[in-house]
Sequence to fold (221 residues):
Amino acid sequence: MYILEGNIGAGKSTFLKLMQQHLKDVDVALEPLHNWQKKVYGQSLLANFYQDAKRWAYSIETFAMICRVKEHMKDQEETNQNRIIERSIYSGHYCFSLNGYKQGFMSDIEWNLYNQWFNFLIPQKCKPPRGFIYLQVDPEIAYQRIKKRNRLAEKKITFSYLQQIHEHHENFLIQKTGILAELKQVPVLILDCNKEFETDAQELENHITAVQEFLVRTQKS
Fold:
């Protein structure tokens, strides 16, 4: 199992759909966005979070972690070694939840409780992936793409937020600071996605070749 990571606007879903078209032996799993939008106990956690982030951050991050652990456990049982899943429990924790805490949306007590759950569940239930594929993109370009696609759910995303999430991805996947020891050994393929690979055939071919070589190399070790 491999995990595709990257900032909002990096082109993760588009990338996976193109990979599946060009690499027939690759199996992909898109991020289950419906999880964050559906109602839990009669309430929409995402809607509540948008209305009052400090009140609902711990609730939605805990729920997201539970959903991602369930998805991860299911994905790690798949027999296809070339399965690539979009986002993960790891970026959910090291990028988005951590950023929420640093921005003051979670109290110290809530963050400590959340970390206790993470440190209990993930090492016991979730096997590390065979590799990470990181779609690296400058925050400025990610912001331009978000504005261009004009999705309702992304209207409130600010440039400063994208900068914060970008820095957390860099710390997690390149610097590998503050992460679980077993993740530090997981290889990372970094793809420069500042160019529009969806409309640039040569750029897409370069990425496809890099992914193919990465899959072969990591399955030999």
